[in-house]
Queue: 2 jobs
Job 1
Amino acid sequence: MITDTQIEQWLREDVGHHDVTNQVPGETTGRLVAKESGVVAGLEAATAVFEYLDVSVTDRLKDGTAVKPGGELLQVVGGAREVLRGERVAVNIAGHASGIATQTREAVERARTESEDVAIAATRKTTPGLRGVEKRAVVAGGGDTHRLDLSHMVMVKDNHVAELGLEDAVERFQERTSFATKVEVEVGAVTDAPRAAEAGADIVLLDNMTPEQTQAAVSELVDYEGVLAEASGGITLADVPAYAATGVDVISMGSLTHSAPALDLSFRTGE
Amino acid sequence: MITDTQIEQWLREDVGHHDVTNQVPGETTGRLVAKESGVVAGLEAATAVFEYLDVSVTDRLKDGTAVKPGGELLQVVGGAREVLRGERVAVNIAGHASGIATQTREAVERARTESEDVAIAATRKTTPGLRGVEKRAVVAGGGDTHRLDLSHMVMVKDNHVAELGLEDAVERFQERTSFATKVEVEVGAVTDAPRAAEAGADIVLLDNMTPEQTQAAVSELVDYEGVLAEASGGITLADVPAYAATGVDVISMGSLTHSAPALDLSFRTGE
Amino acid sequence: MITDTQIEQWLREDVGHHDVTNQVPGETTGRLVAKESGVVAGLEAATAVFEYLDVSVTDRLKDGTAVKPGGELLQVVGGAREVLRGERVAVNIAGHASGIATQTREAVERARTESEDVAIAATRKTTPGLRGVEKRAVVAGGGDTHRLDLSHMVMVKDNHVAELGLEDAVERFQERTSFATKVEVEVGAVTDAPRAAEAGADIVLLDNMTPEQTQAAVSELVDYEGVLAEASGGITLADVPAYAATGVDVISMGSLTHSAPALDLSFRTGE
Amino acid sequence: MITDTQIEQWLREDVGHHDVTNQVPGETTGRLVAKESGVVAGLEAATAVFEYLDVSVTDRLKDGTAVKPGGELLQVVGGAREVLRGERVAVNIAGHASGIATQTREAVERARTESEDVAIAATRKTTPGLRGVEKRAVVAGGGDTHRLDLSHMVMVKDNHVAELGLEDAVERFQERTSFATKVEVEVGAVTDAPRAAEAGADIVLLDNMTPEQTQAAVSELVDYEGVLAEASGGITLADVPAYAATGVDVISMGSLTHSAPALDLSFRTGE
Amino acid sequence: MITDTQIEQWLREDVGHHDVTNQVPGETTGRLVAKESGVVAGLEAATAVFEYLDVSVTDRLKDGTAVKPGGELLQVVGGAREVLRGERVAVNIAGHASGIATQTREAVERARTESEDVAIAATRKTTPGLRGVEKRAVVAGGGDTHRLDLSHMVMVKDNHVAELGLEDAVERFQERTSFATKVEVEVGAVTDAPRAAEAGADIVLLDNMTPEQTQAAVSELVDYEGVLAEASGGITLADVPAYAATGVDVISMGSLTHSAPALDLSFRTGE
Amino acid sequence: MITDTQIEQWLREDVGHHDVTNQVPGETTGRLVAKESGVVAGLEAATAVFEYLDVSVTDRLKDGTAVKPGGELLQVVGGAREVLRGERVAVNIAGHASGIATQTREAVERARTESEDVAIAATRKTTPGLRGVEKRAVVAGGGDTHRLDLSHMVMVKDNHVAELGLEDAVERFQERTSFATKVEVEVGAVTDAPRAAEAGADIVLLDNMTPEQTQAAVSELVDYEGVLAEASGGITLADVPAYAATGVDVISMGSLTHSAPALDLSFRTGE
């Protein structure tokens, strides 16, 4: 959910105390246009920017739509001063989110070459302040949000296991966990995967394993119906097919949110 | 300036209402460590995250320092629960800012192959909510902030020129501009560069010109002492040397802030 | 997570612009004391109130501890003016949260007369602004948070089912749901319970059923391993044993958070 | 006054980062309906919730109106997604405030059996974050707000009296107090009541006295024209008539705001 | 009450995104010094500015103290960068508040030439965002806060009287007013003053009357014990003695807060 | 830029928790009217106050317009309750800003008696929280904003010079300064003025010099084309012509923002 308070912060940091260039009378229209191909996202946020400024968004693509160069994402009409105030922020947020959606779509397509249903998921490695925008951009690209925040799903991490032992760590966290919440257990060795499933994991996170190790771990989990396997740890776009071929249910990639280049967009007024 | 309100927003979006995994008693130490080579930045923000949680930062690198894999950026000590709450947000902001600093350093080094003093500058194409963090990361990488916000420097853009004519547009904006503020004029044709300087531009922005056109424009500006020339418009890392060789004073690149991949960092506790 | 911004709001609404009674020099101590028996909660929030005012909390009970009349929950030392500024807000938040914990404990104890492991859970019927405080108070009382927010667990409600049919509604929501998120399906008829489980529900919400209907529905779900049954809808403390005896996994009660009377606490200074 | 910032906080804590159930196209209507008898309040706040989401409130009862089961409090029309986002928060705030108004009305009616004009007043024992909403709910129920905040009225408390003596304490506070502000003095013994009045109290607070003691103190105050007497200290609904019969001017009850059960409301869409 | 959020706003608007002049290592001391004679105020706010930046305030005058040129108001020690960041904001707020206190002291002294006890009061004509700071500065100068906000005291204004008639307007507002709140009635004619008192006014506001009219109105109020008379309406410093001589209880002056020149202060570091 | 968050703060501090006087049904109109001659400013902020309350501003003067007594600045129409809630805050902010604009206009007119083009500029001595409003009010009065914040222009101050020497101080700051930012150097002696210009200052600040010294310094700067001279330091309205006659480019005066009396405005409803 985009709040007015966040929109204010975005606009305030870009406008400053006294902008002499935007003292333009009258009304204008504007269009947000793609300069390269990609998948659009963040248009709810861009719309919120304009609406905060009382500029109307008259048309917009649905997040997740593929665009080609020249494609229009958004049309606005409003006071010229307000349109000019909003345009840079709108381009920045939509370009950022669309870059993430585009990168996600690319990863999903690479995964599809080897697997019909493996999910491509984001992580908590998001840009501070933009958790929701980025997670929804991943969904727009065909990906899975994964954990939204620390309270959304319980993760039993390697340091918990190191301290308590795998079974005890899982047990302790399950006692504290709501019935509404899934429990994921991180393992670093193939043989720990079935132990985690046996202990009650809903999802087993296979951390920093090679595709071969991943495949071995997936085999060990085959008897645990309903338990999902997730591959994670520095997986790049190039690695996706190899992991997709292992039979894992989920491939998670921090790079979707922390390293996707922006989609090149421009804003054109008065045409 | 990083405010507590912004740190709160970053933590709140990551923690949620009830995190059962971080209910850990006692104190711990932690270290922020580079997993790849790069230039560090954003450590003031990472420090602010920990200090908001009453975790002490006992040592930290200066922004702009080059690190190698394994290099420590930051050390903390504090309540285990608080350290665990802060670590993801701290990694995210420092990784993001260090990615920008690293990319900037790379651009600067490429520019230095052809020019001793051309500046590599960022633009207003920053991630919403992170204007200050990103501009300071560019400085950490050896770059120039360029305009901090719309009120910092006046930019006479192509649409202003189209409406009023170059000379009249510059005159109108100069009347409204404080003596404390520079005026930059955007031109798209080589012949407009000296007209802009003549009209009183402090900086002439050579927009979307080839290196050849840029060089021609720079020649035209040679007689206007104190007037700077800036090249801009989709310039990539690979293009930097060619533009640096033209004699421009500034090369500005949106990609420094909107498309730099994060620097890979990890946080290790209790070691 | 309690933020400084929220603490400010609480203090600001209680202090106003110019409080002449709290102009007291020097230091003082203070104690938060129970005037009746109950289970304490909200002490993290009460601590945050005092710490915002630079008053030290020198000792405090753990949330979830049972107290008797006269029992001390919290001790502070600090500037007399600051202690006096914080006391009313601290009493209000701790009394409110402890009331919820006490009510939850009572419900859990009643449930234990008929079932060893049925969970007593809260709902989203919380006091606006206090979602986290109240959910954690329920946990302090031995209850389960249930859904923390709309994004935490997917709920397929009666109106979704009415529109799309049960199986299609579940299918549509599952397509949109992350692997990290559970799906609960609300049913109003006993015969719909196994249909919901068959369609893939992680939890079946038996809404507004009598204990007899609930028991019948639970029987129908027995073959769906891992699928949980939840009873909900105006269940009072008096009703708890009857529902606990049906074999449901979860009994959820809005009254835990929206109608629990405050625990009677007082704050004593300078003793 | 309900601010947008507070509405945001309420919605944000309920929605989270990515709610897949509310992705519903089109418009809908909705109605807030009572499931039990009571007095409505908080409808200004509920309206503000919907209006923040650009949902129109087409009709609503006046705060203070009595409703019966099935009675409509509020009607809305707007985007289905926005209506669904707002409904839970609107029900929560209106149910909470209406519970307070209903409890207040009950106390007032009990008081009227013995006194035509004794006021039933709230205290500062309100739920943090909801001071204004709760005080206005008390007014909707026919009660008196009492002190809105520490700056609204000066209260000379038992600890001030213990430290300085009654007359000196009153004198010291009166020197500091604006002509615009009343001064209330708390006394614990019948004989202190006329001393407080003599010293200049506008109101004498008879703290933790029995009805008999209260009546005796009221008699002592009869000669001090314009000085009001207030009974306070753990007074329950059942105690109200006995205190009302003593002739006090005000009976204040913390339970009105900290322990009133919510009024049972539901929200129905699309009918 | 000064909140961190407000301090942040003050600092943020002064610092901007990247301040290159304040990159100073090491610690420093600093002193806030008067450059002219006056009465100090706003030092709590100035202290809060420095403490937000983790700069310690080691000594400070009490608000309301008279200073001569060269007098020290405040001493600090802390990081040089932080001291430099805070100094301008601290000077601005303390200079503003001290200007108000000084002007108030001047008005009080002029009043004392004619009356021993007439109060000099501020109004609601305060600078937006600084209500509390300014009201407390008036108190520091020896004045009276008057109404802190619309909810603090009820004011029956000329437009209410015009609509309903004086007696009915007072009656209607008294019905709605808490026993904790005073009622002031504005009158424009001498003969209306006793009518307002008779109707139950706690204070009668004599609006825009000459000193002669004011004196006449005060005479009419002599029989209403406990009812106060206030003179208001464009009263300047020069007018104060004439009004003070009329026997009114209160003289209120908007100029105290909206037109007092700042007290000239400077901040000296490292001495 | 005025944000909703700031408007909320202004309204909240004036309204409080429960205002019984503004419970007025129906619609009304209102007019903001000048009671004395002056130059208007702050009408964007006043408009934002009303619009936050959903009151329409149907007409308003342009900031910078001169008004005479009785002149209308602003007309509104809206709910009577909302108009009454907004009026005091709107008057306060517009009166404050118009006072600054009026004072600035007066200074400009006095300067014009001796110089056609000297600029009258504000400083950073603004009221905390109102930087933007006050700087724009100075512009409305015909003045120059000067530095908007610490990041807008670099100022090499006397303490920097004392520590490093003039030339080194300028060099050090220029290295850190963006090409987009001007550098001003403060000097206290006439002979330092040309040194500062030689070292690269864009502007030389002649601090606390007499008009004679100022004129001498201006003469020394005559050969440095493009370098501006600014006179500063306790310059009053009466001093303006003498400084204007020296040939300086800029006269800056803190009093414009910290000591201008408010312009006397009133708000009239329902006429």
Job 2
Amino acid sequence: MSLLDPLFRWDALDGLFTDRARVQGMLDFEAALARAEARLGVIPKSAVAPIASKCRAGLVDMPALASAAARAGNLAIPMVKQLTELVAMDDSEAARYVHWGATSQDAIDTGFVLQLRPALEKFEAELDRFADSLARLAKKHRATPVAARTWMQQALPTTFGFIVAGWLDALLRNQERLHEVGKRAIVLQFGGAAGTLAALEERGIEVAKALGKELNLPVPEVSWHSHRDRAAEVATALGLCTGTLGKIARDISLHTQTEIAEIFEPAGEGRGGSSTLPHKRNPVTCAVVLAAGIRVPGLVSTMLSAMVQEEERGLGGWHAEWETMPDLIGIAGGALHHLADTIPGLEVDKAKMRDNLEITHGLIYSEAVQMALAGAMGRGAAHEHVQAAGKLAVEEHRHLREVIKSDAEIAKHLSAKEIGRLFNPKEYLGVADELIDRVLQAHASRKPKSVDKEAADPHGVRRKKRR
Amino acid sequence: MSLLDPLFRWDALDGLFTDRARVQGMLDFEAALARAEARLGVIPKSAVAPIASKCRAGLVDMPALASAAARAGNLAIPMVKQLTELVAMDDSEAARYVHWGATSQDAIDTGFVLQLRPALEKFEAELDRFADSLARLAKKHRATPVAARTWMQQALPTTFGFIVAGWLDALLRNQERLHEVGKRAIVLQFGGAAGTLAALEERGIEVAKALGKELNLPVPEVSWHSHRDRAAEVATALGLCTGTLGKIARDISLHTQTEIAEIFEPAGEGRGGSSTLPHKRNPVTCAVVLAAGIRVPGLVSTMLSAMVQEEERGLGGWHAEWETMPDLIGIAGGALHHLADTIPGLEVDKAKMRDNLEITHGLIYSEAVQMALAGAMGRGAAHEHVQAAGKLAVEEHRHLREVIKSDAEIAKHLSAKEIGRLFNPKEYLGVADELIDRVLQAHASRKPKSVDKEAADPHGVRRKKRR
Amino acid sequence: MSLLDPLFRWDALDGLFTDRARVQGMLDFEAALARAEARLGVIPKSAVAPIASKCRAGLVDMPALASAAARAGNLAIPMVKQLTELVAMDDSEAARYVHWGATSQDAIDTGFVLQLRPALEKFEAELDRFADSLARLAKKHRATPVAARTWMQQALPTTFGFIVAGWLDALLRNQERLHEVGKRAIVLQFGGAAGTLAALEERGIEVAKALGKELNLPVPEVSWHSHRDRAAEVATALGLCTGTLGKIARDISLHTQTEIAEIFEPAGEGRGGSSTLPHKRNPVTCAVVLAAGIRVPGLVSTMLSAMVQEEERGLGGWHAEWETMPDLIGIAGGALHHLADTIPGLEVDKAKMRDNLEITHGLIYSEAVQMALAGAMGRGAAHEHVQAAGKLAVEEHRHLREVIKSDAEIAKHLSAKEIGRLFNPKEYLGVADELIDRVLQAHASRKPKSVDKEAADPHGVRRKKRR
Amino acid sequence: MSLLDPLFRWDALDGLFTDRARVQGMLDFEAALARAEARLGVIPKSAVAPIASKCRAGLVDMPALASAAARAGNLAIPMVKQLTELVAMDDSEAARYVHWGATSQDAIDTGFVLQLRPALEKFEAELDRFADSLARLAKKHRATPVAARTWMQQALPTTFGFIVAGWLDALLRNQERLHEVGKRAIVLQFGGAAGTLAALEERGIEVAKALGKELNLPVPEVSWHSHRDRAAEVATALGLCTGTLGKIARDISLHTQTEIAEIFEPAGEGRGGSSTLPHKRNPVTCAVVLAAGIRVPGLVSTMLSAMVQEEERGLGGWHAEWETMPDLIGIAGGALHHLADTIPGLEVDKAKMRDNLEITHGLIYSEAVQMALAGAMGRGAAHEHVQAAGKLAVEEHRHLREVIKSDAEIAKHLSAKEIGRLFNPKEYLGVADELIDRVLQAHASRKPKSVDKEAADPHGVRRKKRR
């Protein structure tokens, strides 16, 4: 764990992308390979126990592995060598069958997929938790008026619940996406040196299927050694998700500004304090999430650039993935977790929201007035008329309502009572309420999908894990 | 059309992303809005014809629009103004109902979606054509031996058909992805100034549905003014697709090198000529596709960075999309089209492929020899043994076969005949053939999906277009 | 000109990166080459006039050029062909000497450098103009108190002039950078097919020098066909400059928010209007500059990725530059110009700035109070003490000054008068004034540098242009 | 140290960017601040020793710091708190003066600059070492003929020394750049909470100067809390440098291909071995450097995107830098070091280079023939003529020399002897030799600059370090 991890990362992912986990992923591949091959009689059954018993990261000499990897160009070559030596110490016969028929990339890529699978499961669960919080928040504030702001300017009234429903709606698409992506990315890598499984002669596909079963991983049509869209797509899906998180954090940070002061991250001992400014409560989660929103796009572009790999194994492109993916997952995961954690405690100052609606002295109701007049005067004329009234209100420091009321032309079309109603935020919310319901229903109806999800998972990979 | 367009772009997309098409997209939105609102009695039926008849890009004063947009900050505001004036010249009453209840962003975003829809359809069709070519090529060369190269070094034999099957397999995933993305991206944008459709009072959802019907666009749960994952996801899907294309182009360019000379882009008058080097035939398509592989990741990162937008309308982030998406689509489309166009005429020199397999004087069969020995000697010992033999072969400039034959230890395990067989590429292809079939079957079975696709399209949006 | 150009681009650059200018750049190279070679007797003197007279973009058949370029893979090959034919029509003898000893890339790269040179000059001049505006603004508002905001929260008082001095300071570094970059980037490209100038036998360097003289371009040690840091560095310098512009725009946009309302972009007919919200004045320039801040980093990463080119001419990497650089220059130039244009008319509401300093009911002076107490109580104790007072002030809705005044412990250290002084923004500005002067002096002292600049330009390239 | 560090990073940088080094950088700032302030009488002289003695990273409770930082949003706030407590244990009076007048960002940014300074010094030294190797290699192979390849096709002869001179030339520009950048980036950060140094009243600049002296850091005109071009420029300079390294690695990797086999990375126990393919020697350094060439551009774009920071302290943008810069420096440094380390041992197969020049059966001399004919026939006619001869040579599998010799038209212009000479690579190298000398001279003349460098370093910052 590094000093900045608690700030930027998510501890639930911590164990998944350590050096040890990386090595264990590869060793899980090797153990499963031995089991699968022994079951099919490709290697002797007696080789399984001696091999599998050594497939534990704790037995690996990590410094030696690291320095050998610098010469070999990847971790699998020296790891297989260490493993073979470990097995040979007990059983030199079994040692012959370590890594049988596989290539380094099979171990590295499948190992990574085995790290990625629980990570994506955690993402999905955290997205669920986040979505649930947002649904609650949207319901709670469905009738809380607040200024809608476009171009960072107050525009017209909306409700805070409607804003949150928009956040939730975007989150639902990210859930859908991540689920689709997982189906393409969480698959076995197994092709041997050139993808043809030549070292296994005619038994390659059989072994692949048995290996997939061992690891609960679907077997793709063909190996994907130098076709990296599977990993890169995970990057893009997390990139989109981080973009959505960043947008929500941007909103919160803007609403938190001293002069607006409508929403606050939850307080807490030492949270967001300043070393020199004792009164401040800084939006720390927003900073973390916005930082992710800045960092992740560059990492996604790296994964896309890295796709242009050479022939049957990339030179540089593949290597570029090894640190990039864990970084990207860590940063995106940190953003997701910290924001999901912050939402339930979000402080909402309804009174301040209401006060802020008065800052423009009625100009925020311009559209409402304009639409009320447009039927009678036409959209264009109403626009110009209200714009003139607005100008007058600003110049004379009067409330727009008063200017409107004293306008003879408008008096022809609107009664004083009607004018009064126009300056009430609750009267100009359109179908915000129904739209919130549409999003909440979409959220609610997603739930059963997790059942489908399992149905669509013939290998039972995920179900098993959850027991 | 600019000078470099024929080189980098795809003419079939040309008409879709011009200034005129951009304006027409917005005008199609305005016309449909009038029709939808009139049908529901929100605006008078008599307003439809006067409005719709003016919704033609040819009537717009483009220079005036451009310069007004520079002041307004977007195209829709001055375009609506021009449209209103045009309508007013004929029918001042109808002019009142132009753009009724909508906001600029509704017109701009829906207009863009209307440009994007045929573009994605063209992408899907071109991917189909490309996949078909690859399937034919994979079948044709399923038994053509060629060196598999890892780390840019000859590794072991494979077949060219197997390499192409790998290309095809990746392409199929891109097809799947693009199809999924289209379902999320090709939707109506309609929310009014703050997304609440306040200007339409209680009739907002009704109008949205009617408008969606007019434009054959699904109506999403809620508008997505500042949640930009829909557009950004199109960018990521095209980014992944371009990555796959780039990988294929990298492969072709490497195989085309003077010293390898196994594959060539089709010849043609003036194709790939050099101004000073009369004999050269440059892989122009590869250059174009590789350039796209370098350019698109940066544009994708722009779209992801742009997602972090402010409140109910982004300041800068939204604007960043307007030129980026057409650029990205143009570049990705150019790469797709030029590569799809090149594949059917690809020249494959089977004899040269075979000759190149002999360059290593048998070292390329090291793994084959090693695996043949591994059963008897163990993987590790066989590895070391064959490595030593390889070293000797290199030092003494002998063929590995001869070194192997003269090795007493190996003679214990392998007969001369067996050794001979090991140095035949066709004898060390593993399950390449079955794997090719798996990919071809996946390709073939994708076809009926286009029927499903229509079933899954309740609005019949795509079907209608195809008639 | 495209519809969005007036919004996003700078008209002063317009003519520099058109198709015509691109072709003219290459033709200027060809004409200069003929002159240089004739002067040295490498080609006949009689060939110069017939060649040079045809080196006009207006004579080129652009559609034919475009379509031939799609086959040839670059513009220079078919352009040289057209030029040769044009010359041959008048003088078949002279036509023999067109493009003598050069390669396509020499024409394309030098042509681009010739487009880039005036562009960078315009950038430098616009940066000068911008810096001058900022210097005036900093002076004018050196004593205008405003809240400094950290983490988007009011922190302590500063002056608006000090904020502007910070903008100016960053701009000065960008000027310096752009000047240094120009020295490396604005150089001749001339190497022949492989950089060795083989086609000119032993006279290559002589010709290069004469050609450099003709074009007023320094001759680098060696050609840079596949070493692209010269162009990429221009991209990075513009990227840094755009980052600074984006930061300034971010500041303005935040200060412009309805609730803060301290600074406004200049008003103007149709500027920043909203189609539905008649009262709004949107910060259009900020949107444009922020969009550039989002777009340019992706384009810079493209230029850096493109550097990894193959051998003596890049396949794809070089091609990736051709549209990227003009895009990047156009976007960065638009941002620079629009912001430089906006600053002189910036409206500053000093009264509102002062009012906003009161929003925290004195909490903004916490650090001032703390420092006043720290000498006596220690920094830690003072911090905790003031934090407690701040908490009380918030809870009881009292002004911090009142809480402080009624605190017995504090009364020991500070008199009522001293306390009063602490709550005056002008009393807590530190050395803001001197720091502003430091920046203004740095700005003023940069001026003579433009004289140095010419001294450092032995070829007189820039001086000549300016006459 | 992580498992992949020896592969991707440079051990000489290892200690510079650890958690401990990060904390020590901040503590060095705090100690120097106490010393500077005491010297000026701003704080008591007696406070220095108690404070300075605690400014050791080894005394900090790292886990507590990490978890407090997650709440505070940065490391400096809790670090100052720990430091204060440590000091207070011994001397509660001195504890009052910890961090006097500074803000968190002063400690974090200056701390980072203190980490960056030795890193840039190491980069400069390694670039020197690399440049020296390249100069030696260029000299050694100045007359070694090899095929120049454009578009990845053999084009005409060049020398390997000329290719290496091109690498060196690009490296020299990177040295120049890095040196310029260092002057802007290695400066003090000291501004207090808002940059005005308000907490130090009228003594801010005085303290800043004394602090700069303590740390051997130039004092900039004004603090740069939210103007991040200084750090971002370091990123761009390293980005350009990595691009150059990537280009060199691309060249080596292409020349190393089995079929070309002209250059090899040095062999070594376990270097570049393959787990399944015993004969292979993979270009591991190229993979590492190419991976850096793919990764760094994304990180540079992050740094540029992060520049658009808010007001007096960025929310997210600043945070985005903290892990990005060390990553970027680590990756770029690893690429630099591994490539610099590989060059001296590079194996060059001159015989194979010569053999490869014969692969085209003379077509590689087409330009030589064309130029020889161009004087007589005109460039265009010569081009067409030689192209036709080339075509014939290919079709009839004849050497171009033979086709040329048997051509009656050519016989008019060239004797058999002249033709013979045209097919010798040494006869068509143009001014390669002089160009190599120009680069070598530029390299040699850079040396004295390091003296200048020190002269230009009034603070003696670098000199001191080197003693």
